[in-house]
Amino acid sequence: MSISMQDVEHVAKLARLELTEEEKETFNGQLNAILKYAEKLNELQTDNIEPTSHVLPVINVMREDEVRPSLPIDKVLLNAPDDEDGQIKVPAVLE
């Protein structure tokens, strides 16, 4: 598999990037080098390898939940840019 110049232009358009012809050629070469390197994985014999989500064993290192008193609402609202009726007021994101 290889990346064509049209693929580079398409991705640049999706990312809203304006690339010069020289940049397109550079990215084309770099992306093709990445794909060529990734194709080496197809040479590995993986028939007897169990699928894993992580290379190393993952252990949950988070602390246990602990009930603690919350900050008083008046102190919380001191950090808010605006408040109304005891709540943090933010700009509307929907019309």
TrEMBL record:
Gene Ontology BP annotations: glutaminyl-tRNAGln biosynthesis via transamidation; regulation of translational fidelity; translation
GO molecular function: asparaginyl-tRNA synthase (glutamine-hydrolyzing) activity; ATP binding; glutaminyl-tRNA synthase (glutamine-hydrolyzing) activity; transferase activity
Principal EC category: ligase
Pfam families given in the database record: GatC
Keyword Metal-binding: no
Protein keywords: ATP-binding, Ligase, Nucleotide-binding, Protein biosynthesis, Transferase
Listed name of the protein: Aspartyl/glutamyl-tRNA(Asn/Gln) amidotransferase subunit C
Natural source organism: Paenibacillus protaetiae
